[in-house]
């Protein structure tokens, strides 16, 4: 059977950073996102995050890879990602590792990454080495498996859903 353009299993070949972030945050969110459910467009938290990103490092330019958009890359190939969260998350590091992998596949000699949290004036460094590469490749495999599933993954405990734009869908509140 030939895949159709809207087939989420085959669309997964171009995994972007949002796919990896959603995988690590909530696999159900990834599954719903790839099937076109996108409540983030109406989310005040998402809009706030865009304002923080746009105003914090206004002189930087996005790097558009097609399937992914990196906030910016500095000289020496260091990936930078800005988050409006007040709490660093493993999902943010996974997203940066994914960007490093995408750049490396394009022949860029990547050094690592930094996640910026301007609201708390903190940064976290994300190393790029063999272990990080394996984690990024594994995350891609996991994301493709979630996307290929015929039914959505189980929802997270409700406490983990605080602030999620998919809350209404999953919990019917």
TrEMBL record:
Domain of life of the organism encoding this protein: Bacteria
Domain DUF83: 17-171
Name of the featured protein: CRISPR-associated protein
Organism: Streptomyces rubellomurinus (strain ATCC 31215)
